[in-house]
User: Fold this.
Amino acid sequence: MSDPLLSVEDLTVTYRAAGKSVPAVRGVTFGLSVGETLGLAGESGCGKSSLANAVLRLLPLGAKTGGKVMLEGEDVLAMKPGRLRAVRWTEAAIVFQGALHALNPVQRVGDQIAEPMLLHDGALTDRAAAAAVKGLLSHVGLPERFARSYPHQLSGGQRQRVLIAMALACDPALLIADEPTTALDLMVQAQVLALLERLRTERGLAMIFITHDLSVLTHTTKRLAVMYAGRIVEEGPSDQLFTAPFHPYSAALTAAFPSIGDPGSRMHPSGLAGDPPDPTDLPSGCPFRVRCPVVEDRCAEIDIRLVAAGEDRSAACVLVGT
Amino acid sequence: MSSLVEVAGVSVRFGAARAVDGVDLTVETGEVLALVGESGSGKTTLIRTILGLQYPTAGSVSFQGKPVPNHGPAARSYRRDVQMVFQDPTGALNPRQTIYEAVAEGHRIHHGHEGEKEKVAEALASAGLRPPERFFPLYPHEVSGGQRQRAVIAGAMILHPKLLLADEPVASLDASIRGEILALLRRLVDQTGLTVLVVTHDLGLAWNIADRVAVMYLGRVVEVGPTDQILAEPRHPYTRALLSVVPEVHHLEPQILIGEIPDPTRIPTGCRFHPRCPVVAGGEADRLGILEMCKSVDPQFLEGVACHASPPHAGGGGT
Assistant:
């Protein structure tokens, strides 16, 4: 991997709530090359959305970030506001979750897609922007006449396509998709995933795909990172991680999605007891140990970090490599 | 097994929209039946009709052999026997009410205050919230999403219903919690003889807990059968397409249907699925000589499936 597009080093995100500091992301490191895809999986509250928002500095005021986010060689966290504005949308764009709420209900879809283009290119005429909008709409598989529609006139899947068109408006090299298919039907989800895959190959987009549905990721992204309590606890090629996870948490997540036709999961739903830990009151040692089915005494003492686990894979568990 | 609910020729119209368009469906006592379909297939309208919240425009729903009552003491007892669990537990609970109050409410309406505390404790424990007393004073925001859904289920179970209608009970929950809630539903069925009709678009859920699956498309049930059979050898092309795009299914070539469910005010002629049907689009219907039938004749529901291509032809050779 020469010259990664994005390189995140020891990133931390800390919120403040009720006078307490809440560590949401606790030291995450990863890299992404041009055209590469990475899936980020984990439960609500594991820090995956905070991580995504930190990459483009979209966190609320009062959130403190540490570490480095290098996007095409520049540190996003150290950028001046003007430079940051220029980078957002043109170098990296986000497709937000909840297609229902991410669009302005009283503005035509075409105008919303044109907005970032007009803001980023002062020389662009309205007419040229309108033409570009039509091109983008047909690129994401929507009829051009939808430019004049309002969001409520579109279905959930169509709105999600509009959001993707919007994210592509300024031709970014990196697309961050935060739960882009969560609220969608199975068939529509398949349509959106196929669209993202087509865009990746046609445009050479690098993609970070965030979801709690691990099964979606295995087919969409080449690499997979599983997050727990603000850290990556396992990382590796998607198919390997999904079929043979090292970390007991990854194992529980993969088992939660039954393989239809597998007699082992028929009439036998598999879950993980307990709840994610309170970030203000993390257990000592491994934060997963309180829910871990294979916990040992030493887990309470060792705050384990990612260690190499075979070729191209790593996991944060004392049982790995022993 | 005897049938608990009998849906016979039920149609529900909203103006020109035919939301449910002639559904026959039986729910057997003590089973988990998964009603599967996309948004707009009419599955939610159908369970609202079973619940008595919606009158059918045509046809009838009967419960234990009698028509669903809509007033008087019989309706009161029906509302005890049939309980509902919604998709989003956060929306289903009053944020200003404690878990105790939320669970006790149904009991109070039907039985007054007598034995309330014991009943609430029993319901919470049966839903896996132990020790129950710890949850009495907590507000919904003080417990996790999974515990909130357990509280909603406890609120339904306190009345010892015969039928539980669950609308996407795990769709808004994390993957790790999903399995726990499904295991709870299955355990309630196995241990208390409860019957569950679960509405979902998640075929993995059906594989996990359902005895039978019914697939709905545009207001109609297009295929019904035992889960093992439907998910191993789907006969309707729509079921086949749905199954092929489940990320965990590897033995079927993904068939991504174009477009979305049509508008229920303009249901296509002939087989309602024909404009999106891969059997029609791929030319197979033409080769079988049934293309004209697909376009003009509404297929009858025969031996668990409503498809012109399925009954005689697909017997051995289906994918």
Q: What stands out?
A: The mean pLDDT of chain A is 90. Residues 103-171 of chain A form one domain.
